[in-house]
Description:
Blueprint: H1 2-16, H2 19-45, H3 51-59, E1 67-74, E2 82-88
Antiparallel strand pairs: 1-2
Amino acid sequence: MGVFNSFINILKIIYKMDGNDLIRIGSETAKGGFANERAIAEKFNNWEQDKKAKKWLTIMGYTLKEIEKVEAVILHGYKTDVQIKFTWL
């Protein structure tokens, strides 16, 4: 019941906001997403030193010993935000 009540309280707050507040919140959310995309791309580009990137690659089914290069690029105008290219040994 606690989660439901929290959700209702959030809806009440949103309902009281004017259009400018909603636009501002949407803009802040988008900016946060862009920062997240950059952070993820940086992790993959530094995969040899980054523990999380190594774990992600392993979870994705890749064998780290077989990877020569990983290049992550941020895409604009596509649903997929980060594209990862691999070079194999």
